[in-house]
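B., you asked whether I could sanity-check this one before it goes into the benchmark set. Here's the sequence:
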Amino acid sequence: MSYPITIKKTTQSKHSDEVMQNVDFGKVFSDHMLVADYNENGWQGIHIVPYQEISLSPAVSAIHYGQSVFEGMKAYADKDGHPLLFRPAENWKRMNRSAERMCMPEVPKEIFLDGLRELIQIDKHWVPRNEGSSLYIRPFMFATDDFIGIRPSQNYRFMIFCCPVNAYYPEPIRVKIETEYSRACQGGGGYAKAAGNYGQALYPAHLAQKEGYRQLIWTDACDHKYIEESGTMNIFFQIGNSIVTPEAGGTILEGITRDSAIALMKDHGIDVQIRNVSVDEITAAYNQGELLDAFGTGTAATIAQISAIGYNDHDMILRDAKTREISNWLLKTLEEIKRGTAEDKWGWIEPV
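And here's what the prediction gave me:
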């Protein structure tokens, strides 16, 4: 099905060299955004307009009942400054898995992908060319019924906006294994990229930050014995010559960077084990000198090396991040693929 896109461009761009050189993650936004609305007649009114505030009723159901899902993705500049998207169809698929779990309508591929490409083409000068920088892309959908009552909304809005960003974690981070609070439980919506999953994680993360940790490592909700994921990323450990990571799905987000990292490591001949990973296994490996690396993967984080893991009032200090072969190789390889300077044997890159 075809969805025509109406375009209204800004008359005064906010873009400047000064703006692009001073970007804090998530605080500077490009000139345009995409908007589409859903009602009983389906999706309609697809348009790209200047980035602006939106007007909502105080009774809008997303605020009261939490029907809100989102994605995170990036555009990178190749050597000539042309925008490249990294596995955008996977973000579209995952967003619709999240939407199904939250009882929301599917966003058609034509709206998500065609609208995204049109938006990036219009704002392509916002894609940073500096190493380590990119254009962060935020597709999201929320319920828009003007109604107070617990039922799925009948109306929704889908939007995409973008912001130029530098590295989310410019340095290796300290994390803490969480053993009191839980992010998700079996049968819940942990695998969905739903806003509520992040909102309810803020308080325990805040407590950890007061202790000097940047993020949490979540554990299972039943016994807090098994590793799940970190606040903004999936988690990997190098034990000896093997990389271990929990299986995604259920309570763990199916990360696209995670999937890409696993494919790259396996192709490189690295032993990758996708299985239950217990806290006891990690502490034992550390005590035996076999915990050689720990890192997270995510769109914002890319490859985030971990400098220390807090557990039971004790920090497991990991070796100097500069000496870690696998995570440094992964970061370099992913960056090169995303910028079109390395072979893309999987067809992950899509020029805009």
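One thing to flag: The longest helix spans residues 88-101. Otherwise nothing jumped out at me.
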